[in-house]
Amino acid sequence: MDSAQQKALNALEPYVLLSKSATSPRSAVDLITQATSSPNTYVFAELLQTPNIQALRNASPEHAIYLTLLEIFSWGTWSDYQATPNLPSLSDAQSHKLRQLSLLTLSTSPYTLTYENLLSELSLPDIRALEDLVISNIYAGLLSAKLDTLAKRVDVSSVAPLRDLRPESLPEMVAVLDDWDKRCIEVLWEIEQQVREVRRKAEEVRARDIENERAFERAMENEGKDKGKAAGKRGARDTADREFGLADGGDEMDVDEGAGRGRPRATKRGGGRFVGIAKKLSG
Q1: How many CB atoms lie within 10 A of CB 141?
Q2: 230, burial (CB in 10 Å: exposed 0-12, middle 13-18, buried 19+)
Q3: CA-to-CA distance for 161 and 1, rounded, in angstroms?
Q4: Residue 38 in contact with residue 67, Cβ under 8 Å?
Q5: Cut 0.85: pTM above it
Q6: DSSP state for residue 247 in the 8-state scheme
């Protein structure tokens, strides 16, 4: 709960307790006057709902108007007070408080915060009175704002949650909340669909990576087998060469010194693989 709201509720609590003993219309009227004049009371819903205060609705008109006045302090504005006939006159403290509360309501829209509009809505005589009212709201913790004297407007950044709801505003608020709930459900559904799509794509990428890794392993395995076969063939050929005396130098030339002094006779060993094998067999 906001600190300003808690402070206002604490200030109202004694009047709520006193309402239990305000069994006559006159005592209930006096209690309303005291509560709306107190400097720290800014919320009135709890007091308004008490049985003895609600009993004023069936009281004489001179007493019933105070119930209407309390309703204006709960959720109305200075303009509502002026537009409602036969209401009791306000003290200076009550007038100042109702203007403070009205400023909170007007602060919900930036278009109503010009000096010109505020002077009209709050029935203030001049800019100095308006600026003093805004400053009093700031010091009371009712709102956070700055005075833009050049643009002649009030820049409000936050407002304390001190205004009560009009009874007729509840159906509208429920409709707004229902619409917000539906939009939240739609957004959540869209987010879930996007999450599913991301997961599906991630699984596809993972499956491709696994398949590529397996294909690479098969390729490496096949390459190793091919190299082993090639090495086996070379080993068999070398064994055959050694067996038939054709290992190395099979194509070297021999000089037969006994062929005569005049011209040496050269013979080629291993003139070919099959020639060498034939000589071996014939010997």
Answers
A1: 16
A2: exposed
A3: 9
A4: no
A5: no
A6: S
Summarised one tens digit per residue, pLDDT across range 108-125 is 877 778 999 999 999 999
Which of 62, 83, 1, 66 lies closest to 28 in space, CA to CA?
A: 66
Nearest-angstrom CA–CA distance, 221 and 228: 11
Cα–Cα distance for residue pair 52/58, rounded to 1 Å: 11
Give 4-40 pLDDT, tens digit per residue. Answer: 788 888 999 999 999 999 999 999 999 999 999 998 8
Burial of 123 per CB tally in 10 Å (0-12, 13-18, 19+): middle
Token pair 């509560």: residue: 35
Report residue 256: phi and psi, to 5°: -90, 105
Q: How many residues does the chain have?
A: 283
CA distance 277 to 118: 122
- Which of 106, 56, 41 has the alpha carbon at shortest distance from 78? 106
